[in-house]
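I am still getting used to backbone structure tokens and would like to learn alongside you. To get us started, please write out a protein record for me. Once you have written the record down, we can walk along the chain together.
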Amino acid sequence: MKYLFVLALFAAVAFIVYWQLRPYIRGLRRFLGVVREMRSVREGAPPGSTPQQQPGRKRAANEKLLRCAACGTWMPASRAVSLRGGATYCSHTCLERAADTPRRARKSAS
């Protein structure tokens, strides 16, 4: 019974310490995510990909290029953000920017 009480007390103290350190742990995880993203960009991998998903350099040289529907940037098909309708974008930021801008009404020739 004494050991159970000591174990419960230890668990309660550990939980309180974790609860107090939780914001710092979350900040550390975000920082490490940014470092991981910077390293993958420096190595030439698409953002958000894992090392297993990274295409080889020779394969990327023969890859089909697609044009961004919003800004007109050409990029390899593996890095493109594709929609079901066939539109492709160079990044999620460009996709969001295109979604935020109002569509211009097309004038008919008649």
In short: The chain is about 50% helix and 10% strand. Strands lie at 65-67, 74-76, 81-82, 88-89.
